[in-house]
């Protein structure tokens, strides 16, 4: 060292290292925070875009679509919320879906639910990783045909197949190969599965079984039993499809409560409309429709109700409405 | 100052200038999504307007869709020539919707039932009744 | 040593100023995205409000592409559809009868159908300005079984 107060070389290098280290750590920290912020923004955009898609879809009575955002997505659907990378948004629609959805293509479908008047749209999501196998017997063949090939069928872009119980019993290995490319197989039995359960257990790894039962010939109302023994009630094919697509009984029942909320809201409107119209048209008798709508509204607010009760109330409401007409406007 | 320090400061100035120029570039870069939104709104407007025109009640139990059908067959509705009703009422409704006469066309088949023609980019909605296509075209 | 320290200090100051400008730019960009998302959501609302089952026409058991004004009069959406209207920004939603030209005034159960504006949703918040977007719609009056021409208006509150 030549001058006083001048640092020696080693100390200069140490000083440079310390300063450089601080600046380097600052920049690395900034980069990480920026990556996190970008991820959060991107996820927020995804869930907002999905929300807008559902809202736009809600005008259709029946529609299906495949959404491809160009990159893979990964989100969960639970209790009315779609969550992606920590960003979640409450979706105002009724969505039936597996718990986790990931992949490049998102299959979206909607069906209008009428009980007997339109209550709203139900939405279904799938990433194509689950295949639904509907199994019927001679009594339920037409029902399954309706569920696979009609206006109110399971969305055509959702992987699904239909077989008779005889076909399943005799071709279990072919069925296993047919479904090998899917992550999960969901069997939906519209008949007893006692004869085939052992074969299924030995030939399939990732599967579960749903059992559909109904006292109605056309299976318009009934109940579905999940693998864990939980039973749920469905009212109409759109809700049956929801039960088939739902992750489990809890997620189905969450949406069931939302449907009942919507039913209550719409029924309330028709009840208020009937009071309003009857005040303006005193020459018409709206007592029957008012009573049946009031009873129907009460049913929708009850906790545990059988599907037969709903079926009866719906028939009464329809009949009361059909009794109007001409100078006495119908309520719906 | 030493030469090396001067060079570092010069380098920093260049970096900052580059940063500012990038910021200004991205700020003024073209944004297309607002145009798409406008187009989506106008497309929806054409479709909804045609639906509203169809459903409009002309007189007791007679909607514009019935009048248009009668016009195709050359008949009367509400004690008046159906085609005259179509020409008058459609113009009135569309005018109240805020469209100028030279921005739209209303066709029943090949026959024009609006005041003028228009050219350019278009949004169209139509439906078929009695074998004829009823078409509303908006030009922009 | 002092010179090295000065260089380091100058470098840090310049870096911090540059980052401050960058964050300001990012914030402006995010705000712009938010405004755009607001406009998109409201355009989607133009489509979806008309299909709300509580106000959509249901005639002889079939849904039609119109708004039942008698249901509009009796329905209060704020209890049920709050989440539909508060996604990105506030908005007022109302239906306006255009043709035949109506009487002036906001509709309620007393003056129906001699009125012109059917309020659907009003958040009752203060705002400095607004942007109106609208779409044509058919308004159905069940007492006279008439369809009239109207508009669905969404006033985005800024």
Brief sketch in words of this structure:
Chain B is an alpha+beta fold and 140 residues long. Chain B contains four helices and eight strands.
Describe the protein.
The complex is a heterotrimer of chains A (332), B (140) and C (158). Chain A has nine helices and twelve strands. Chain A is an alpha/beta fold. Chain A folds into three domains: 9-127; 128-247, Dna Topoisomerase Vi A Subunit, Chain: A, domain 2 (3-Layer(aba) Sandwich); 256-322, no CATH class. Chain A has a six-stranded mixed β-sheet with strand order 3-2-1-5-6-4, sandwiched between helices. In chain A, strands 8-7-9-10-11-12 form a six-stranded mixed β-sheet. In chain A, strand 11 and strand 12 (231-235) form a beta hairpin. In chain A, helix 7 packs antiparallel against helix 8 and helix 8 (287-300) packs antiparallel against helix 9 (307-322). Chain A is flat and about 105 Å long. Chain A starts with 8 loop residues before the first helix and ends in a 10-residue tail after the last helix. In chain A, 39% of the residues are buried. Chain B has one domain (41-139). With 140 residues, chain B is of the alpha+beta class. The relative contact order of chain B is 0.12. Chain B contains four helices and eight strands; from the N terminus they run ααββαββαββββ. Chain C has one domain (2-157). A six-stranded mixed β-sheet of chain C has the order 1-2-5-6-3-4. In chain C, a hairpin with a 4-residue loop joins strand 5 (130-141) and strand 6 (146-157). The longest helix of chain C has 47 residues, at 2-48. The radius of gyration of chain C is 25 Å and the shape is rod-shaped. Chains in contact: A-C, B-C. The interface between A and C is large, with 46 and 44 residues.
Shape of chain A: flat
Which class best fits the helix and strand makeup of chain B?
A: alpha+beta
Measured as a percent range, the helix fraction of chain A is: 40-55%
Helix percent of chain B reads 40-55%
What top-tier CATH class of the largest domain in chain A fits best?
Alpha Beta
Beta-strand share of residues of chain A: 25-35%
Tell me the fraction of residues in β-strands of chain B, as a range: 15-25%
Q: H/E series of chain A, N to C?
A: HEEEEEEEHEHHEHEEEHHHH
> Which residues of chain A sit in consecutive blocks of at least 5 with pLDDT less than 50?
none
Strand order within the widest beta sheet of chain A: 3-2-1-5-6-4
Tell me, briefly, the overall form of chain B.
rod-shaped
Q: Show unreliable segments of chain B.
A: none
**Number of E-state strands of chain B:** 8
Number of domains of chain A: 3
In whole angstroms, the N-to-C terminal distance of chain B is 65 Å
* Mean pLDDT value of chain B: 88
**Total helix count of chain B?**
4
**Class computed from helices, strands and strand pairing of chain A:** alpha/beta
Give the total of domains of chain B: 1
